[in-house]
Design goal:
Elements: E1 2-5, H1 11-22, H2 35-47, E2 53-59, E3 62-71, E4 77-84, H3 93-107, E5 112-117, H4 122-130, E6 134-144, E7 150-159
Parallel strand pairs: 4-5
Antiparallel strand pairs: 1-2, 2-3, 3-4, 5-7, 6-7
Bound molecules: coenzyme A.
């Protein structure tokens, strides 16, 4: 399993990962995913200037996961998201993707990296907590889902101060 920065040529494979993981309900994006539109948005991130960036996780040359970083409304605070195909989990890929995003955020001069996660996503919460992310709050009944229900999300973040 290797992590590298994404190129435009990866955009469709990355969108297909999101489409597959969205079927589980573990990420904010809901199924069914418009793969072409999602690939176009990945291309914009990959080709654009600024701190927004994306990475792919490869297993034997096949894209099995990805991570992305984008700016938030708060200057110096970047937000991340990641997803790995179910069959490729538990082999260190999530931690490797997270390390890549942390390194990039530091190089960009960001002072904090944040994310949102469903409160029942124990695997992701454990990964982030083990990498120094702490829960900063709960966005209660914040996200309207396509079935009409409302979901809460945990806000987790990690400061990127000197010595980290
Ligand atoms: C969250 C996710 C990215 C983790 O990726 P992964 O490749 O399985 O994680 P790793 O193998 O690198 O494991 C890193 C750490 O995560 C935690 N972890 C991973 N799977 C876990 C599980 N099933 N239960 C509890 N903790 C788990 C552990 O702390 C683990 O560290 P350890 O191996 O030293 O115990 C992956 O499960 C995934 O893509 N899930 C679906 C999408 C998703 O939830 N994205 C995040 C939304 S915010």
């Amino acid at each position: 399993m290797t992590v590298r920065e994404a190129t435009s040529a990866d955009a469709e494979a990355m969108a297909l990962v999101i489409a597959a993981v969205a079927e589980e309900g573990s990420i904010a994006t809901e199924a069914p995913v418009d793969v072409a539109d999602r690939a176009r948005r990945f291309r914009e991130t990959i080709e654009g200037a600024g701190p927004a960036a994306a990475w792919v996780l490869e297993d034997d040359g096949r894209v099995v996961g990805n991570a992305g970083i984008h700016e938030t409304h708060a200057a110096g605070v970047l937000a991340l998201g990641m997803a790995i195909l179910a069959e490729a989990r538990g082999r260190g890929g999530g931690r490797a993707l997270l390390e890549a995003t942390l390194e990039h955020a530091r190089v960009c001069g960001a002072h904090k990296l944040e994310l949102e996660v469903w409160p029942d996503n124990t695997a992701a919460i454990a990964l982030y907590a083990s990498a120094g992310f702490a829960v900063e709050g709960v966005r209660r009944d914040h996200y309207r889902r396509r079935d009409g229900s409302l979901r809460s999300a945990l806000l987790m973040a990690r400061p990127l101060g000197d010595g980290d």
